[in-house]
Each structure stands twice: as C-alpha cells, then as structure tokens.
Design brief:
The chain is α/β, with parallel strands linked by helices and 404 residues long. The chain has 14 helices and 17 strands. The protein starts with a helix and ends with a helix.
C-alpha cells in the first residue's frame, strides 16, 4: 500500500506553517523537498569523514572516496548505464548541457544544423545558440501544438544529413508534457545525429533506462529528485565522451602535467576538474535509494491520481484556462484565470500558505506561443495529498473573488 501520511513524516519541512497556515508545497517542478535520510547523509559526511577524495592516502580520504564512488555506481544502476565511467558528476543539468555544448565546438562546422524543441527550458536553448555563434551552425526548432505537444511532422521535415545534434527535454517543465523521446532519438539516429535528453523534469517521476532509450547523453539534477542542490549528473555514451574535449581544466582531470604538454585522465575524471560537491554526491545516492524503496511505478500511479483530481477541480472554476493538455503528462498543471495576472494569484495564495510558481518558468518561447505573460504552475510530488489540493482550490477561488 502507498501510505502518503507515513511518507510525509519523512520530510521535516512539511510540518511547518507559512503565515499561520499549514505549508502546501506545490512548487516541486522548481525543486523537491528533502527527506530526513538525505539530510542525515550530509550531516554524517561533514561530522564523521569529511576529506577530499581520490588523492589522499589517509583513512578519511579513503572513506570519503569509497562513499563518493559508491554513489556514482548507484546512479549508474539507477539509469542503467553500461559503465560507471559513463556517469559524469556535475553541479546540475545546466552544467551537463553546457559541457556537451562546449565540447561540440570543435566538432561542428559552418552550415551544420542542430535541433531543439519549442518546449525547452532556457538552459536547453541558450547554450545551443551560443554554440551556433561559435561555429556557424544553424539552429532548427521542432514546433509545438496547442495541446503542448511536439509536432513530429515538422521534426521529420527538419531532419537531414546536415543534422548533427538534437536536444529535447524528456518532460516540459512548464506544461508537464511527456515527450516521445524514444521515437525522437531513433529518428535522429537515422541521420547519424547525436541526441541529448534534458531529464531534469522527468527523473522525479520516471525512471529512464538510457540503454533502452539509446540516447547519447542524458542529464538531470539531484535537487528535483529529493537530493541536494548543486549536484547532478550527465550520462554519455563512452564513444562520445572519448571524442569530446574536457570542459574545464584543473586538478583531478589530468594524467600528467608539464609546462610543455598536459595529458588528460581517463573517464570519468576527464570531465571532473576540481574538488566536487562530495557530500552532495553521496546524498544524491541516498536520495535515489529512498525513491527506489518507494518505487517509481507507485510514485507515478499516485501522482497521476493527484493530477487528475486537481485538473477536474480546477476546471470547475469559471474562467480557468489550462495550458498543456497532452494525455501524457507528469503531475504539473499550468493555468490562468481570464483577466487576472498569474503573479497576483500566486501572491494571494502564498498568504494562505500555498507555494506555487508564477511567470514564464524559464520557458518564454512557450508563453510567447500562447501569447500570455506566464502561468500559475502547480506541480505535485508523491508526498502531496488530495486534502492539500482542496486547500489550493479554495485559495484560488478566494484569490479570484478578490481580484474580480
């Protein structure tokens, strides 16, 4: 049985109050809340075996190194990468995307084409625009439909022998749409193009198998997976990681350094310059253990129940407009009330203890497509409840009545 009340006890922040009201946290697409077991892992590291990793011969360094590399293996197994060396530990999704975008600078030529989708977060748009400026490559865009889905017909028309790279998110952060990434990957590979999947919004709800997907790169952030901020990972097929140059220079990523020439370390250390967020990586592994103990199938089933419940309740409110109505969604609802700015709704319901996100959600092209300034976004996780949704609905109705 999925016992949400038992699960909620694992998250200390859920017991606090905001403005005298119980916290209702519906901003999970921005960052998830943290279970005590993950928090304890960070405290344990700094309390009992804090040391730098890999280079030390003393006991603390060896203990920290072992815990750090065990976390890498947990991440490898979670995503089903063929080798642990294909898991590069980063500061987050944005770091992973920029690592690949920078690396491809030497692999692209003027006239080459790269493809992004209309559903992307800014972090999966801007680095590719910068890459085009450096190389003379051309940026093509997969268009979207009114339902918030990608138009695969236009994608097929865009693909050609000039296509070298395709970048698509697994799930839209603004709309919750689950993109058909397996089909997108296969279509790109028919033209010999590499594919990077931004999994930041998918991984809290879906357990991806990178070998089954056959993606060339897959990246995500720990903080959306009940882990700490400042940590993430990018999976890369070994063949691509060997081709790409290092993203940063410094300690750890070298094999030998002289003033005449430097040779680089083997994977994964080639891409991991400097002292990493050791405690964060260890806690990332603990967070994955926690989620897998609950089970991603149970998580998805429960969150879909919350999504359907909240969607029905919202549509009962007069003048509510939903954005992103794909049948394949994670637990995200973006909406507006006609005639009311989303910021005003968010500000009022915050006074009632309810946390949502308002604005363009770092996905301004989506808002431009709908010709709106932004939306109110309510995003749910497995520790949320229908009772919280009821409080949210009551607060939205109250805000609507105050503003009309």
């Amino acid at each position: 049985m999925f016992d949400v009340e038992k699960i909620r006890k694992d998250f200390p922040i859920l017991s606090r109050k905001i403005n005298g009201y119980p916290l209702v946290y519906f901003d999970n697409a921005a960052t998830s809340q943290k279970p005590q077991v993950m928090i304890d892992a960070i405290v344990d590291y700094y309390s009992n075996y804090n040391a730098n990793i890999h280079r030390g011969v003393h006991s603390l360094s060896q203990e920290a190194t072992e815990a750090y590399e065990k976390a890498r293996i947990k991440i490898q197994k979670h995503f089903n990468a063929a080798k642990s060396s294909e898991i590069i530990l980063t500061s987050g999704t944005t770091h992973g995307i920029n690592m690949v975008a920078t690396g491809f600078t030497s692999l692209l030529a003027a006239g080459d084409e790269i493809v992004v989708s209309a559903l992307e977060h800014h972090s999966n748009i801007v680095p590719w625009q910068m890459l085009c400026e450096r190389t003379g490559a051309l940026l093509k865009v997969i268009s979207m439909t009114r339902e918030g889905e990608l138009d695969l017909g236009t994608y097929e028309n865009i693909l050609s022998q000039k296509t070298k790279l395709v970048f698509v998110n697994h799930v839209s952060n603004a709309l919750g749409t689950i993109n058909p990434i397996k089909k997108i990957i296969d279509m790109a590979h028919n033209y010999g193009a590499a594919v990077l999947i931004d999994g930041a919004q998918a991984t809290p709800h879906i357990k991806p198998d990178v070998q089954e997907l056959d993606c060339d790169f897959y990246t995500c952030s720990a903080h959306k997976l009940c882990g700490p901020t400042g940590v993430g990972m990018i999976y890369g097929k070994e063949e691509w990681l060997l081709k790409l140059p290092p993203y940063q220079g410094g300690g750890e990523m070298i094999s030998e350094v002289t003033f005449e020439k430097t040779t680089y370390a083997d994977l994964p250390h080639k891409f991991e310059a400097g002292t990493p967020n050791i405690a964060g990586v260890i806690a990332f592994g603990v967070a994955l253990d926690y989620l897998n103990d609950i089970g991603f199938e149970q998580i998805a089933e429960y969150e879909n129940e919350l999504l359907q419940y909240a969607t029905k309740k919202l549509l009962d409110i007069d003048k509510v407009v939903l954005y992103g109505t794909s049948k394949r969604k994670t637990s995200v609802i973006s909406f507006n009330i006609e005639g009311i700015h989303p910021y005003d709704i968010g500000s009022i319901i915050d006074k009632l203890g309810i946390a949502v996100r308002t604005g363009h959600h770092c996905a301004q092209p989506i808002m431009d497509f709908y010709k709106i300034p932004g939306t109110v976004r309510a995003s749910f996780m497995f520790y949320n409840t229908k009772k919280e949704i009821d409080l949210f609905i009551d607060a939205v109705i109250k805000a609507k009545n105050m503003l009309t």
